[in-house]
Amino acid sequence: MTDLTVCAYSPGTVRDAAAHTETHLAVLAPHLRAPFRAALPRAAAAVGRRLLGALWREDIAGTRARYGGSGHPHAFDRVEFEAVPAGDPVALLPPSIVDGRGWTLAAELANAVTNLAIAYARRDATPPPPFGGPDAEAVTLERLAVDGHNLHPCGRTRIGWDVDDVLAHDLEAGSTRIGFVAIRRDAHVGDDLGALCDGAPPAPPGYAVQPVHAWQRDTVLARRHGDLLRDGTLRILDGTVPAVPTAALRTLLLPGGRYLKLSLDIQVTSSRRSISVASTRNGPALSRLLTRLLAGEERVVLLAETAGAALDGSRDASAIVRDGLAAHLTPGERVVPGAALPLVVGDLLAEYGRGPLAFLTDYARLVLPPLLRLATRHGIALEAHLQNCLPTFTRGAPHRLVLRDLAGLRLHRPAWPPPAPTCPCGPAR
Known about the structure:
Blueprint: H1 14-28, H2 33-58, H3 63-67, E1 72-74, E2 78-80, H4 100-122, H5 134-142, H6 163-169, E3 176-184, E4 188-190, E5 207-213, H7 214-224, H8 226-231, E6 234-236, E7 241-245, E8 251-253, E9 259-262, E10 264-268, E11 271-273, H9 277-293, E12 300-302, E13 305-311, E14 319-322, E15 334-335, H10 341-352, H11 356-378, E16 380-381, E17 389-394, E18 397-403, E19 410-411
Parallel strand pairs: 12-18
Antiparallel strand pairs: 1-2, 3-5, 3-6, 3-7, 4-13, 7-8, 8-9, 9-14, 10-11, 13-14, 15-17, 16-19, 17-18
């Protein structure tokens, strides 16, 4: 059996990442230094528990033999640990996997810890959205799930952002900015999104205006596409408009209640959050298809992706427009993002009044049948995880299921019964 011995000191340790963060906070946000320092042990423990759970599931380096019986078992061979044997999650990494790639993981873990500690330090001071409505309420509820992904140890990684970027653009910032670029028409793919954005600058002749995340505009586009900027294919435009970051970070809520999903080339969990050109075309096509297929599902609401556009051949300036909630809800219907349910389910149960088992049964009957019908009847699998599912409740009872974000959807065309629905979209990768 291989012990999970403590790894040697390396630049990937939480100690180094925390020192870097404190140095920056001393200049950028001195009032956060003490709360950040106080939050570090809690953040390290949260990341460590998820990492230990992942090592257990895969039984890496004898984890099950070493820690058997010390956690709380769940379904699907998952164990949740209440405590971890090391203050730094990096110390849990087995030496057998700590090679060049292993130290990359160590850096991701340290990044997750420090960003989670920043989030803990800021959460009580996060300003509410500057406008109301069900979408603003949903974003406020999302913020309750401050740990991020409920299983992934790197749910709070922000690889590519430094401390100043986290302070300016992360969920707890409460607001961020949308910038604009002009794409020459022969390099523009898709819809005219600039015409759909209030506050967008006018398009120069021969160009289409494209919304982009302000950070993406000022860093990625300026650094990576110097050739396109020099030859005039791409032009960076002045001005920004405000928006509210959601838990997805690259998806921003606009004051009018619609959403913009924008390429954001940072790593969150295990993937970089840019958007393929194909996804900008797939979203509207799939929305039309799903609207038709879900017409008989009275308890399902789809937040359609109505338009999308991109820079031809690049993932760096892609954008997708998504509908908001306001037009779909009835009086007394409350939306709770799935990720926030563990934090508010007690209040829902009290209002529901029929006990947790009946509540869970009603919830399962709401969520599972429409998703399984789509899969078995039409060969369509939605990526219906806790961030993409927004159940609604009336008087505490599960009422309807709101679905959003079609990027992870999978199609099995042979399962489509005749006449097969048409879908002119291509693969997103």
